[in-house]
Design a protein that fits this description.
Length: about 60
């Protein structure tokens, strides 16, 4: 199964959490995205990839 991570370059735009709210959330203290849950289905892997593609600063790694 793939592993998703978000690096410190995140600017907290919220795109990933809008695309995949089960997988990403904006941390209220840092105002950056964090991974809520690793993908556990092909659908969630696809959503994680879509979020990574949509991230304006390429902070999301799916591997
Ligand atoms: S899409 Fe990228 S920049 Fe925007 S909140 Fe998610 S990780 Fe951060």
């Amino acid at each position: 199964m793939v592993h998703v991570s978000v690096n410190d370059e995140c600017i907290g735009c919220g795109a990933c959490a809008a695309i995949a709210p089960r997988l990403f959330e904006i941390d209220g203290s840092t105002m950056k995205s964090k991974v809520k849950k690793q993908p556990t289905s092909e659908e969630e892997v696809e959503l994680a990839r879509q979020a990574a593609d949509a991230c304006p600063v390429a902070s999301i790694t799916v591997k």
